[in-house]
Design goal:
- The protein has 330 residues and is α+β, with helices and mostly antiparallel strands.
- It folds into three domains: 58 residues, Winged helix-like DNA-binding domain superfamily/Winged helix DNA-binding domain (Arc Repressor Mutant, subunit A, Orthogonal Bundle), CATH 1.10.10; 168 residues, Endonuclease, Chain A (2-Layer Sandwich), CATH 3.30.870.10; 60 residues, Arc Repressor Mutant, subunit A.
- Helices cover 53% and strands 13% of the residues.
- The chain is built from twelve helices and ten strands.
- It has an eight-stranded mixed sheet with strand order 3-9-8-7-4-5-6-10, sandwiched between helices. Strands 1-2 form a two-stranded antiparallel ribbon.
- Helix 1 packs across helix 3, helix 2 crosses helix 3 and helix 11 packs across helix 12.
- The two termini are 17 Å apart.
- 25% of the residues are buried.
Length: 330
Amino acid sequence: MDEVSSLDQQTLAVYRAILFHKEHDPDRLGQLLDIDPAEVKAALDRLAELSLLAPSQDSPGALRAVNPSLGLQVLLQREQDELAWRQQRIEQNRAALAALAAEYTASGRSGSLDGTEHLDTVDDIRIRLEALAESCRHESLVFHPVGGLTEESIEAARPLNERALARGVRFRSIYLDSICNDRVTKAHAQWMAEHDSEIRTSPTLPMRLLIVDTTTAVVAGLPGQTGPSALLLRSQPVVLAMRALFEAYWEHATPLQQPGSPGDALPGGLTPQERKLLQLLATGLTDEAVARALGIGVRTERRIMAELMERLGASSRFEAGVQASRRQWI
């Protein structure tokens, strides 16, 4: 579900002009409001998206303003739908992690129970991943919650990926937004995209995850894990819960932009990473915790925050939070 677009003051001014002055032409609206015509057209697009404009019967090809009372009902309904979707995503995450925690506890961290294996060496993990890559026939879903991959791991995985692609396997992968700062990882993601894989990015990811053919899931990076360790899960309820978690993140992740393609701008020209940084800081997390969640260094996190404060004209982080909230950046 797309986020509900904000009704900023400029968009509201355009709506008011159409409502009271019965003006439709972007150029004349721009002159009336002293606004650039391009910005008027952007406001018209937002108003149409919010169902505050409708096709005019008197002026074919033009738009008329919808009665504000009806427009308010439409906006409130969209807000309610958005809130319901977010609540559903929270419940999906909770159910998936609760099922995983129960499975992990039952496994006793060793041996296997109901198809669960605890892998605690790099070699064991690689052997399992190689076997899964060769056995995959339909779909591979991946969370990559690290800032960058090594050239060694990419080269080792490439022949496996090429054979899977040749078999018609559908790859869907979500990386952190911070891969744009890592040349090697970004190049690999773009190579996968060029070979018909679907690649998206997200500001944060909850764990390292691989799901193969909805029959097996490999999970790593869970709280309490130290060193190289992973869980291999074959229990269908747990694997399906992991898949639901993946789909929840996939729906709101951003498609990887290929070189030369335009991206979708967030309010204030924010990137998804910048917006998530503001949201995480607003919850009271430290710089170190925010940087870890975003897969970036603390120095990078502080640099991004300093740039945001400058754009907001804020002299403190508290003031930056207030200004960001007023501008509906968060």
